[in-house]
Amino acid sequence: MPTSKFQEKLLLLRLKKKDPEAFAQVYDLYVTPIYRFIYFKVSTRHDAEDLTSEVFLRIWQYVNEVNDPIENLNALLYKTARNLVIDFYRQRSKKGYSQDTETLNNVKDNRQQSLLAQIETEFEVKNIEKVLRQMKDDYREIIILRFIEELSISEIAKILDKSKGSIRVLLHRALKLARQLLNDNGK
Amino acid sequence: MTMENNSLKKEFKKIKQNIFPRPDWVDLSREILLQQISAQKEDQAKISFFDFSNLFIQFFRQRLLEPAVVMILVLATFLGSTLVINAAFYSLPGESLYPVKIALEKAHVALISDTQKKVELKMEFAEKRINEFDKIVQQTENNPAEKTKKIQQVVQELRNNVIEVNNHLTQLSQSFKQTDKQTDSAEVIKDKEQKVQMALDISSKTEELAKSIGEKVAGLSEAEQLEVEQIVSETVQSAQKASLSAQQLAEEVQSTGAATAPADGEIQGASNTEEEKTGLTNSDNNDTKPVENKVTEEKTDQTPNQ
Question: Do B59 and A147 touch (CB under 8 A)?
Fold first, then answer.
């Protein structure tokens, strides 16, 4: 979690007061996690960027229009991102390019390491990323939230609107699947 | 299986390091978003103590009734209200806390019963308006129309203050004329001394005010000057009038002999002399010095007798 609980609430309060500085702070804190989260759900970096911006805009509008106190900024952000991706897929028809190529392209753009390291990590990342992209969205999502964003079980439960128990079960199954896929891919 | 799990988890963590948005895009998007929201935003309000306390309560719901927490809350109430007041203290016209500031000033004045102190207070506020004026002029990022509006606000407040000072001075001199006719005690005499002092202070302050208004206005651009010309000239006139009234009041008080207050035993003698002085004063306001000297002499004459 990027900030302490109290800091988060205070930030939220300022946000409610339509303080643009607060908004900027929220953006700075959450842009990378939200981007990552969306990135794995969509095919292109471009889409991830667009959707990420949209998430923050929605959050701002939500805070301004709705008077209910917001319990958890973290959960709100991820939920919004999630919903936006769902809408995104509903609206547009899926195009037929191969996912693997996309993954490769994306991965190349993002890193600035030495060539050798690049090749090495490319191979590994490609592998694990491939695995992630092969998974069902539910499993992929939970792995991202737990192991990439490193959120707690209770936070994930809030985001996904499920019980802690179901989260644990899902996680267990997701890991199992990931292992399986990795082994399959390795063969 | 656990080992596999661990290595898996490590792999996932690696992804975290490798996947991140383009820095260029992050900056660009940030700017665009901020632009979009500032187009929508209304006036900002600073967080009031009420909101903060709500947040605090929400957070510490369970432990709220513990004595220590209650004490902290009580302290925070006092601190918080001063925070708001202090925040208001530094606000300028155009900011949302400015009306609060003006309201607080008015409340302050209303709570002071002593007329004298009221006038002093109002002088202070007038000076504050000048300071605000300075600050506004320095804010070059404002567009001219906004700036003029703010300047007008400030100068108007200033004018109101000065007019009020004037009114008080008139009141003071009227009440002063009344007390002259009564038997004057030592306290009243001391009171008069203070009033002289204050009247002189007011006089010099208003002169300064008038000067500085003139200077500030000269510092504005021509267009702005035109806008504020009328109201500024009114203010300057009022300031000068106040200065004049203050001087007159000072003269009046001095002519009735605001020397050191006599001891109790001498009160009768002193009051007799006062009556004489009064007689003299009412007829001839301008001739202060000779009367004063005469009075002092008379007093020193009396003292050894008693």
Answer: no
